[in-house]
Amino acid sequence: MPELPEVEALRAFLDTHLVGKEIARVLPVAISVLKTYDPPLSAVEGAEVTGVGRHGKFLDLVTTGPAGELHILVHLARAGWLRWQDPLPSGPPKPGKGPLALRAALTGGDGFDLTEAGTTKRLAVYVVRDPQEVSGVARLGPDPLAEDFGPEEFAGLLAGERRQIKGALRDQSLIAGIGNAYSDEILHAARTSPFKPTAHLTPEETAALYTAMRNTLHDAVERSHGLAAGRLKAEKKSGLRIHGRTGEPCPVCGDTIREVSFSDSSLQYCPTCQTGGKILADRRLSRLLK
Q1: Separation between Cα atoms, residue 252 and residue 254, nearest integer Å
Q2: What's the farthest any 2 CA atoms get from each other in the chain?
Q3: Mind listing the pLDDT tens digit for each residue in 242-286?
Q4: Which of 74, 71, 23, 19 is nearest to 50 (CA)?
Q5: Among 37, 60, 63, 212, who pairs with 53 as Cys (CB 3.0-4.6 Å)?
Q6: How many other C-beta atoms can be found within 10 angstroms of the C-beta atom of residue 226?
Q7: Residue 289 has pLDDT above 50, yes or no
């Protein structure tokens, strides 16, 4: 799933390649992709892209045209992606069982496709006058890389929580933009068990977690800076130190990276670095082995 660093890199890429250009046509290919109908998708045709923003994991393409200022909000979900094409293929896209979900054509002949792998279709596109009209944006917590989001604000958010820290970091209404992969990376850097209750964090552990969060996300954004959209997935995978590396040696201590499987996802951790050597049980069956 694209998370804050990849979406921020896509924002920067589109800011360079898309701003100042005119949208000729937007063609939804998958019926499920478009989540709003007023204003219609056709309202952005003939409009100029005047900015590209980000709200958590949402991309915000700001357009100005005959219908005034409109926002095309894109949430890539678990398996979505944006593919820049210069030039776009000739001829209209054909609906079918392929990954193509939406095509945006610019007057200069270039543009982009939104694609989604797999059979579960969750990629979402909204056309709105105000991003806050989209419930997923309206409920977002603070951006973890925002200049005004300091250690005190972070500690204040966690102080009211009564759950495991892994789930808290992934909650978009608490902190925007962190998903499964980077929460694993942050917890490993902070040497914290993914199952540790937030209520049991000491002030020192909370401070270490904040530093790990900022450094992990900032470093990932820096690694992706300037990369073409098509290279961002590979960059994310190569830059992850713990997530998706079950069975490999921990890059810090050399212990074997372990996995906990859930019904639709998994997490990775290092027993030596994070759980005092204890092996975490499969959460579908039992709690922490003692």
Answers
A1: 6
A2: 65
A3: 999 999 999 999 999 999 998 778 999 999 999 999 999 865 554
A4: 19
A5: 60
A6: 11
A7: no
Who contacts 52 (Cβ-Cβ below 8 Å, separation ≥6)?
11, 14, 15, 18, 19, 59, 60, 61, 62
CA dihedral 225, 231, 233, 236 (to 10 degrees): -40
Question: Tokens in use for 37?
Answer: 């109908």
Q: What is the DSSP letter of 180?
A: H
**Distance (Å, whole) CA 102 – CA 187:** 36
Q: DSSP characters for 106-164?
A: ETTS-EEEEEE-SS----EEEEESSGGGSHHHHT----TT-TT--HHHHHHHHHT--SB
How many whole angstroms separate alpha carbon 58 and alpha carbon 219? 20
In three-state form (DSSP H/G/I as H, E/B as E, the rest C), the secondary structure along 214-258 is: HHHHHHHHHHHCCCCHHHHHHHHHHHCCCCCCCCCECCCCCCECE
Cα–Cα distance measured from residue 270 to residue 279, given in angstroms and rounded to the nearest whole number: 9
Spatial contact of 162 and 198, defined as CB atoms under 8 Å apart: yes
Q: Which DSSP symbol is given to 189?
A: H
Q: What is the pLDDT of residues 80-135, one digit of tens each?
A: 999 999 999 888 888 777 899 999 999 999 999 999 988 888 999 999 999 999 99
Give the pLDDT score at 284. 52
Q: What are phi and psi of 14, to 5 degrees?
A: -70, -30
Residue 149: φ, ψ to 5° = -105, 90
Question: What's the pLDDT at 288?
Answer: 45
